[in-house]
Write a structure and sequence with these properties.
258 residues
Length: 258
């Protein structure tokens, strides 16, 4: 049964929370891009009007995602587990792993010929900014919403996650997605080596997806790309080049190695 009052309560809170995290993270990302010592990833110029287009898409995204979450929360569609500290931590990681698998599948589907038209809006940002992360079409935003709602719903049938752990993961998800589209490398070298590289990656990893369009379909980790064979073999040299103060140019092309 739909409860309008409960829906609006959740919706208002979630809109403000999502917008606040987005604006805070965009501010941090833009500051990092402008820092004198910043390691710029892509050296090519952005087209005129890109940021304005991205901001408009962010407004839509920051309304649609809270609406989907509020709809699920008011309807009590999801079975939640205990909020003990230990289970909240486990829930955080469970949500992360399942969302990464879901996102990889969604992203691969969006790169197929029939569905690419719904993903093309995101790839208009070849050189990315923090605003690029949530600059997607309405259809793609619905795919994100399905993941945000579907992950805890699915886990509720197997291992119900903590609501607190889930909300912490959502914060991490939005923060990491937005800051991860900044055109500056903030990831330490440890993220290029095992075992860390399996669970996280530097920003250059995803920047190559925007520059080249293919491969690197994962969200915040490399394990799905590694298992599926969609990892660019030269991404570590690309990262090293960026860290040496030499931005990538010409669609993410790396310089010849000595």
């Amino acid at each position: 049964m739909f409860d309008l009052g409960t829906f609006l309560d959740w919706f208002v809170v979630l809109v403000f929370a999502h917008a606040a995290v987005t604006l805070l993270t965009v501010g941090l990302g833009r500051a990092a891009e402008r820092a004198p010592a910043g390691k710029r990833i892509q050296g090519d110029a952005m087209p005129e009007g890109q940021v304005a287009r991205e901001i408009r898409a962010n407004v839509r995204f920051c309304l649609l995602i809270p609406a989907a979450l509020a709809l699920a929360l008011q309807g009590r569609w999801i079975v939640w587990g205990p909020d003990s500290p230990g289970w909240a931590v486990i829930s955080f990681f469970l949500c992360g792993v399942v969302f990464d698998v879901y996102f990889y599948a969604l992203h691969r589907l969006l790169h197929t010929r029939p569905l690419m038209r719904f993903h093309r809006h995101h790839h208009l940002s070849r050189v990315t900014t923090p605003w690029s992360a949530q600059s997607v079409s309405t259809v793609e935003a619905l795919g994100w919403a399905l993941g945000y709602v579907g992950v805890p719903w699915l886990l509720g049938h197997v291992a119900p996650v903590s609501l607190i752990g889930y909300f912490v993961y959502l914060f991490y998800n939005v923060f990491g997605n937005v800051i991860g589209h900044a055109n500056v490398e903030l990831g330490p070298p440890a993220l290029t080596r095992s075992p860390t590289v399996w669970f996280a990656h530097p920003y250059t990893f995803h920047a190559l997806h925007h520059a080249r369009f293919t491969k690197h379909f994962g969200f915040g980790s490399t394990f799905m790309d590694r298992l599926a064979g969609t990892e660019w073999p030269d991404w570590v040299p690309a990262y090293d080049q960026v860290m040496a103060g030499k931005p990538l140019r010409h669609h993410g092309k790396t310089e010849p190695q000595a």
